[in-house]
Amino acid sequence: MGWWKESIDIVKKNDPAARSSLEIILTYPGVKALAAHRISHFLWKHGLKLLARMHSQFWRFWTQIEIHPGAEIAEGVFIDHGSGLVIGETAIVEKGVMLYHGVTLGGTGKDVGKRHPTVREGALVSAHAQVIGPIEIGKNSKVGAAAVVVSDVPADVTVVGVPAKVVRVHGKKDENAIHDLEEHREYYTSKLEEARYQSLHSSKL
Ligand SMILES: CC(C)(COP(=O)(O)OP(=O)(O)OC[C@H]1O[C@@H](n2cnc3c(N)ncnc32)[C@H](O)[C@@H]1OP(=O)(O)O)[C@@H](O)C(=O)NCCC(=O)NCCS
Hints:
The chain is of the alpha/beta class. The chain has 5 helices and 15 strands. It has helices spanning 2-14, 21-27, 29-45, 49-63, 175-203; strands at 65-67, 72-73, 78-79, 85-87, 92-93, 98-99, 104-106, 118-119, 124-125, 130-132, 136-137, 142-143, 148-149, 157-160, 165-169. Strands 3-6-9-12-14-15 form a 6-stranded mixed β-sheet. Strands 1-4-7-10-13 form a 5-stranded parallel β-sheet. A 4-stranded parallel β-sheet has the order 2-5-8-11. Helix 3 (29-45) runs antiparallel to helix 4. The longest helix has 29 residues, at 175-203. Residues 81, 100, 124, 126-127, 142, 144-146, 158, 160-161, 167-168, 173 line the site of coenzyme A.
């Protein structure tokens, strides 16, 4: 019962509208989708890949939440509302993460292998945010509604906009810290782009 308890507790903790455990089990599509994903993921891990995909598509129909069976999702994750949410095959979502409707944890179409995001413990990804590529959303960070995130987000910051930029560090509008973090993000993004280009180029030789 550990998984169910964690899933119900995080809803109660974060949604003042939730009144009872029974109501949460019966009326929260995110809880149903995550429970179904545990089965799809089990099937996927045991080589029953087609069955796993069919199972996840069945639950996509009922919940409007599409989670690829390969995605690794920890206990105690909260999907609120959920419709239109998509989680890709190599995504990793850690404990305590909150995801809203319309969120994509997707690929760029250019990467191979690990090509979807990793969302670290306690992070919040707001409604309709698009998190694209094998990037990381740091522990306890917040991604604003409708942001498009294409590079790593450090821990404990808030990012907003398109492309998403840091606007708060440890909850504060500290202009110097924001500037330093953004400089590092740009540096690592350009290095990553270079490395991707090189590997694409060498694989075509
Ligand atoms: C980003 C968010 C999580 C707030 O995080 P926060 O750390 O408390 O940040 P703040 O509210 O202090 O906002 C920081 C700055 O970003 C701006 N901002 C906040 N959300 C934004 C967004 N989605 N897009 C663009 N700018 C945004 C604020 O106006 C503020 O600007 P300023 O620096 O000029 O003052 C929140 O604004 C948000 O987007 N929540 C949506 C949650 C959601 O999906 N709800 C759906 C429920 S059904």
